[in-house]
Structure formats: C-alpha cells, structure tokens
Design brief:
globular, 11 strands, 0% helix
Length: 118
C-alpha cells in the first residue's frame, strides 16, 4: 500500500509560480506523476517520471513551464509550476503506480487546489 499526501496548492496571479509536494509513505512505487482535473473536465496527465530517475514526460499544455522532480531522501516528489495561466486552474493529484502513470494508477493523493487568477 502506498499513501500519498499533496500540499502546496493555493491562489496565484497569472504569471506566478507554485510548487506542489507529494509525500509518499508505505511501499515504494516505480512510477509517480501528477494529474489535474478542472470542473466539468476529465482528469488530465500533467507530468510523470520513474522514481529511480530517467526522463520526465510532460503534457503538451505544461511543457516548458512545469518541472517534476524528486527527493529520494525525503520520499517526496515535487511539481514546480512557473508562468501559471488561468487555464491551469484545477485540482492537482499525485499518483503512483508500479507501471507507467495513467489515470488507471492504483494510488492517489487527496488532491490540492490550484487557482490562477487573471
């Protein structure tokens, strides 16, 4: 079992930055990532990578603005979000999976709200 706890969401003006954290406990998963879901929309892939390292993958809408990283010692994954836009407003979820991250991932955090004002 893997437990995930997100933090770091909030309200920010367009062009600003936020950093989300996802603290993991329990069994280690091979892959972790971030998704987001805006009201009335489907859950969208944001970023993902293997916990052990390797190339990160990003959704098209966040490439060049968001960066996923990890701290092995703290068992925590981060999402640095720069140049935020109003369309980035959503609940952001951390996910973990023994296989590549998709919406079918077995482990999810509770979500953290990000609101970007124009």
């Amino acid at each position: 079992q893997v437990e995930l706890v997100e933090s770091g969401g909030g309200l920010v003006q367009a062009g600003g930055s936020l950093r989300l954290s996802c603290a993991a406990s329990g069994r280690t998963s091979n892959y972790m990532g971030w998704f987001r879901q805006a009201p009335g929309k489907e859950r969208e892939f944001v970023a993902g990578r293997a916990w052990g390292g390797g190339r990160a993958v990003y959704g098209d809408s966040v490439k060049g603005r968001f960066t996923i990283s990890r701290d092995n010692a703290e068992n925590t994954m981060y999402l640095q979000m720069n140049n935020l836009k109003p369309e980035d407003t959503a609940v952001y979820y951390c996910a973990a999976s023994p296989r590549w991250i998709t919406v079918e991932a077995p482990y999810w955090g509770q979500g953290t709200q990000v609101t970007v004002s124009s």
